Amino acid sequence: MKKKIFKQLFFWNSIISLIVLIVVFLLGFIFYYISSIKELGKINKNTNSLIKCSQSICDIFNFVNYPKEDTSDFIIRDNGFVIEFSDEFINSRLPFNFSDINFLKNFLDKPKEYEAITKEKWLLYTRESNLNNNKYFIMTGVGLDIPWRIFKVNSSEIAKYLIEESDRLIKNIKSEEDLSKIRTRADIIQVVRNDGKVIEWGWSAPGFIPRNKLDEISKLSKIKIEKSKLLIIEKLFEQGNFYISIKMIDLLPIWFYLVIVYLILWIMIIFFMKNFILKMLLIKEVPDVSLREAISKGETEIVEFKSFKSLDQSLTLLKSVVSLANYKGGVIFLGVEDNGEIKPLEIKNLKELDETKNKISQFIRDSITPIPFVEFEEIFLDKNKSKIIIKMKVAPFYESLYSLNGIFYRRLGTTDIPMDFLYLKQIISKLR
Predict the structure, then answer these.
(1) How far apart are CA 311 and CA 362, in angstroms?
(2) What's the CA angle centered on 178, arms 177 and 179, to 5 degrees?
(3) Measured in whole angstroms, how far is the alpha carbon of residue 26 from the centre of its chain?
(4) What per-residue string of b and e applies to 239-278 under the rule 16 or more CB within 10 Å gives b?
(5) CA distances from 19 to 11, 12, 54, 265, 266 (A)
(6) 38 phi/psi in degrees, rounded to 5
(7) How far is Cα 304 from Cα 59, in angstroms, rounded to an integer?
(8) Enclosing H/E stretch for 39
(9) Is 55 exposed, middle or buried (0-12, 13-18, 19+ CB in 10 A)?
(10) CA-based angle 190:191:192, to the nearest 5?
(11) Which helix (H) or strand (E) holds 237?
């Protein structure tokens, strides 16, 4: 039985530890999620305050000259124009990471000027590159009139430069891996696969999100899992713009910490709750004998009758508790005579019942070593709950035998007798 109880103890300790871990984790995550959403919401509102948009124009001067760490990761106009693009999430499956290739195709033949809704003026040039049966569009550009440029540039001279720069880039591209590492001497670059997937999108490069991806953005959930990353996403739609801020959490370290916390919880619970779990398991080992069944069969090795008079001479009751605990456990019915006659405890209120149970528990604590596991159950014999039989379920021993005032007792038939030396030696050898 000891091996069986040990396995159950291990199992229940693991289950309780897991439940506690899940509850703690969920509470911690909910708190973190709520605080993150508030933080990201403030960032979006702050970003919105830096941009002033009318129907066709957005003034982004204050936004461009503001620290980027305090602004939204993505700012997308309702027509798909990208005001801000964060390359931190470029390898994710988020709908922001797609570009309308029709816009890039407008600049295939030669460098052309483009004026964005932000009033920025660009000279843009697109080239195609074919790798592994995929076509890639590589757009480079130079700002002609942009907030962060303090001098104007000559459009015709820049056009020649963009053509030369594009030739250089195409020449150095040998594989798809080179595309993600591409670097240009132009102001901006954008690399897009023929299905619209963005490979590279340099800061402030003009471009458009495809219309179908805009619909996905409007329906984007607040939590997404991307590979081993958890993304918390907060959106704001103001002035015809989507402001999106994202907090990314690496899940791998969290799993490591959860395992450590689980082991700590397991040790703490086995230390603080071992007796509680053991009592639950050992009490279950005691056969659940009903009062009617006990009276019909009489006293046995695991059933004992005691009158309430035994409380005045507690030694006889305590001997039975120790004897049953040192055997297979058992049931004591307080309020039944040895011959099976019922003489219940008569009380005026339930407080008297509690006092009686506390009195018995105190007897056990004061006289029996170690303290055995005993569960009390009340059997009411009338509707007024004034006549009561107390049923005591005594759990069997697990790690050590029980003694009453230094004497070990055992069950012999229906009597309680002290253990002799040989019997005690035999039981102790089994415990080892």
Answers:
(1) 11
(2) 90
(3) 4
(4) eebbbbbbbeeeeeeeeeeeeeebeebbeebbeeeeeebb
(5) 12, 10, 54, 10, 11
(6) -65, -45
(7) 91
(8) helix 2-50
(9) exposed
(10) 115
(11) strand 229-238
Closest to 182 measured CA to CA, from 129, 132, 146: 129
Give the relative orientation of helices 2-50 and 274-284 as an angle to the nearest 10 degrees.
130
CA distances from 307 to 196, 225, 290, 300, 377 (A): 88, 66, 17, 16, 16
**Tens-digit pLDDT profile for the chain (432 aa)?**
667 777 888 888 899 999 999 999 999 999 999 999 999 999 999 999 999 998 788 888 888 877 767 899 999 999 999 999 888 888 788 888 899 999 999 999 899 999 999 888 899 999 999 888 889 999 999 988 887 676 777 778 889 999 999 999 988 888 878 887 888 888 889 999 999 999 888 878 899 999 889 888 888 889 998 888 899 999 999 999 999 999 999 888 888 899 999 999 989 888 888 888 888 889 998 988 999 999 999 999 999 999 988 887 788 999 999 999 999 899 999 999 989 999 998 888 889 899 999 999 999 999 999 999 999 999 999 888 889 999 999 999 888 899 999 999 999 999 999 998 888 888 877 766
What single DSSP character describes residue 27? Answer: H
Question: Mapping DSSP to helix (H, G, I), strand (E, B) and coil, where does residue 321 land?
Answer: helix
Rg (CA), the chain: 40
Q: What is the C-alpha to C-alpha distance for residues 40 and 34, in angstroms, rounded to an integer?
A: 10
> For residue 405, with 0-12 CB atoms within 10 Å meaning exposed, 13-18 middle and 19 or more buried, which class applies?
exposed
Token pair for residue 28? 């911690």
Determine the Cα–Cα distance for residues 311 and 317; give it in Å rounded to an integer: 7
Tokens describing residue 249: 């959490």
Residue with tokens 């703690």: 24
CB-CB contact of 21 with 265 (8 Å): yes
With beta carbons less than 8 A apart as the criterion, state whether 257 and 304 touch. no
* 241 bridge partner residues: 77, 238
- Please, are residues 244 and 251 in contact by the beta-carbon 8 Å criterion? no
